[in-house]
Amino acid sequence: MGYDIELLKEKLKERLASQHYKHSVRTAEAAARMARAFGVDEEKAYLAGLLHDYSRSTSAGQLVSEAERLGFEINPVEAAFPYLLHAKVGARLVELDLNIKDKEIISAIENHTIGSTSMSKLDKIVYVADMIEPGRPHEGLDVLRRIALEDLDEVFEKAYAHSFEYLIRSKQLIHPLTVEIWNKLIAKDNV
Ligand SMILES: [Fe+2]
Ligand SMILES: [Fe+2]
User: Fold this and answer.
1) What's the rounded Cα separation, in Å, for the pair 153 and 155?
2) For a Cys staple, 167 with which of 28, 75, 135, 172, CB 3.0–4.6 Å?
3) 52 alpha carbon to ligand 1 midpoint, in Å?
4) Residue 162, pLDDT above cutoff 70
5) Is the pTM of this model over 0.85?
6) pLDDT of 70 higher than 90
7) CA angle 154, 168, 48 (to 5 degrees)
8) What is the 85 CA–ligand 1 centroid distance (Å)?
9) Alpha-carbon distance 30 to 137, whole Å?
């Protein structure tokens, strides 16, 4: 594909808080390993992992104004937790600022937080890699890490359940799309 990874890293480093930058590099590495295991383009996975948090260090107020500028509808859960917008806003800005037009990469960035009702293999890889990269302190990730190179659908379902449980345990609002995705996952309907 001929992307200049080192240049992209420099741009990312300028933009992200140091812990978010380091997390992004580890996510890229984890995503590339998973891509190799599941027959997905490794460079695309690395790039999508590297750029998935392009807007992660952006403040809540800035995320809302960027989402408005980009013409996104902001639902009540996103208004209460603008952090949720970092995936959608980041995906669009990677396209606009970095001129990355690859739809699969953009989709994986866009879907790394809430997900979507039709997740591609690459979408699932980046979603899971984001959660299991070795710097993550989360409890309960052992099972995910153990099966991350074995069964992509299984590890994605477990990862999604893990984050759903976390939202409930910590009494956070649930985005309506999260419920829709969960129901489709359980019904084995095309996620
Ligand atoms: Fe993120
Ligand atoms: Fe992340």
Assistant:
1) 6
2) 172
3) 6
4) yes
5) yes
6) yes
7) 50
8) 9
9) 15
CA–centroid distance, residue 122 to ligand 1 (Å): 15
Determine the distance separating the centroid of ligand 2 and the alpha carbon of 98, expressed in angstroms: 19
CATH code, 48:
1.10.3210.10
C-alpha distances in angstroms, 164 versus 47, 78, 137? 26, 16, 17
Q: What share of the chain is helix, strand, coil (3-state, %, to 5)?
A: 70, 0, 30
42 C-alpha vs ligand 1 centroid, how far in Å?
20
First to last CA, the chain: 28
Gap between the Cα atoms of 60 and 82, Å rounded: 5
Domain, as residue range, for 34: 5-189
Structural domains in the chain (count): 1
